[in-house]
């Protein structure tokens, strides 16, 4: 059985994350795209051999052959698009962060549950081979007691006139672009933090949103994880895990590219990188076909936004 998908938004993640990934999957077809601008939508559709483009989400959702949408629009658009898609009975893969505040996530979850929608939170990095290695090593207890971990990720989307910086389409900049991925990785590895402390600065562009955030997660006084999310320092993309006996260092472990490397106690680990977006869409469409939960759910979306919001308190 084939799954028909619509992409909402024509930006970076739609074009460079999802389109190439979906082209590699036999039974998944992109049947339409949503753009605010009819010409841009048509051009995007033509460039990627997508049959239909719409400027009105209601018309797009009216398509009875449509099974699911992938939401690739700014954070503040997610709630409205999720709720409309739920009401139309379409399954949803929603880009991170789930929304801009906790109450918005709760309203989305009510509709997801009411309409029995399969909802995937698009934490694509859970499908990156390097982070998967770390997850497996922690899950099979071969690391011993992990006491300390840290991650740093700096985005290159550092346009001070972009929607992340201006504050009307997102409540966060660095935390939305990168911090949310690192929170997700540590929640995935270690569960829920029991304490969250953060400090935030916006020294370069004086943005209303965070240009650089440093976040400390405490897990029951047994483990500390530090996160550095940035929109203003040069490219950095690294994770480090320290236990009572082991050290794992991962380079380039987050993102679209598949060039990560993992060193376990100094030895390079042989991993086979895959496109995380490919893995994520396969997982999501399997969840639809098998009526099961995707790897990352609306609860992951909600808990993550709860932590993001605390980073601003
Ligand atoms: N998983 C990841 O690694 C990852 C990476 C980057 C981004 N993201 C997430 O994906 C979503 C989209 O991010 P992106 O980097 O693709 O952003 P982007 O390049 O700015 O694209 C967003 C698209 O949304 C549409 N849109 C609708 N209303 C808009 C508005 N008021 N302002 C700007 N664009 C609007 C636009 O398409 P039209 O102009 O055609 O309407 C635009 O091209 C965000 O939630 C972001 O956090 C995830």
- What is the overall pLDDT average? 96
Ligand identities? NADP nicotinamide-adenine-dinucleotide phosphate
Number of helices: 10
Oligomeric composition of the shown chains: single chain
Order of helices and strands: EHEHEHEHEHEHEHHEEEEEEEHH
Report the CATH topology name of the largest domain.
Dihydrodipicolinate Reductase, domain 2
CATH 4th-level superfamily of the largest domain: Dihydrodipicolinate Reductase, domain 2
Strand order of the main beta sheet, please? 8-9-10-7-11-12-13-14
Care to count the β-strands? 14
The CATH architecture of the largest domain can be given as: 2-Layer Sandwich
The secondary structure category is alpha/beta
Radius of gyration: 19 Å
How many domains make up the coordinates? 2
Q: What sort of overall outline do the alpha carbons produce when their principal axes are compared?
A: globular
From the N-terminal CA to the C-terminal CA, the straight-line distance is 47 Å
CATH class of the largest domain: Alpha Beta
Sheet of most strands: 8 strands, mixed
Q: Helicity level, as a percent range?
A: 25-40%
